[in-house]
Amino acid sequence: MNVYNLAPVSLGAAATVAQETFLCTGTHDFDQIHLPLKTAPIVIDRDAFVGARALILPGITVGAGAIVGAGAVVTRDVEANHKVAGNPARVIGTRDWSPTR
User: Fold this and answer.
1) Which tens digit of pLDDT belongs to each residue from 58-75?
2) Angle, alpha carbons 81-38-68 (nearest 5°)
3) Cα–Cα distance between 62 and 51 in angstroms, integer?
4) Residue 101: pLDDT above 90?
5) 28, 47, 25: which is closest to 37 by C-alpha?
6) How far apart are CA 16 and CA 36, in angstroms?
């Protein structure tokens, strides 16, 4: 896992972040000529799973029990117990079970 932590990154209990995932809390404001830095925190909630080589962008929350597919580019929050995949990541289903923690 690689973390570009210009803002806080939170990992909930029993959250899994697989190998070569990139959690990126910083970007630039491309609407301004000087491209100032913009930062926002990332939250990976309890029992969530982020697959290998996924990219999580600034300000994203991956909800409790959510699953992010390998190689996904997450540009929007992922709701609890939802599964997302692709570039950009899109909902492909929901979990068949809910974590019991």
Assistant:
1) 999 999 999 999 999 999
2) 20
3) 12
4) no
5) 28
6) 32
- Cβ distance 64 to 80 under 8 Å? yes
Beta carbons within 8 Å of 30's beta carbon, 6+ residues apart: none
pTM above 0.90, yes or no: yes
CA-closest candidate to residue 12, choices 79, 62, 77, 84: 62
Cβ atoms < 10 Å from Cβ of 78:
24
- Annotated catalytic sites, by residue? 28
- Cβ burial, residue 70 (10 Å; 0-12/13-18/19+): middle
Q: Is 34 exposed, middle or buried (0-12, 13-18, 19+ CB in 10 A)?
A: exposed
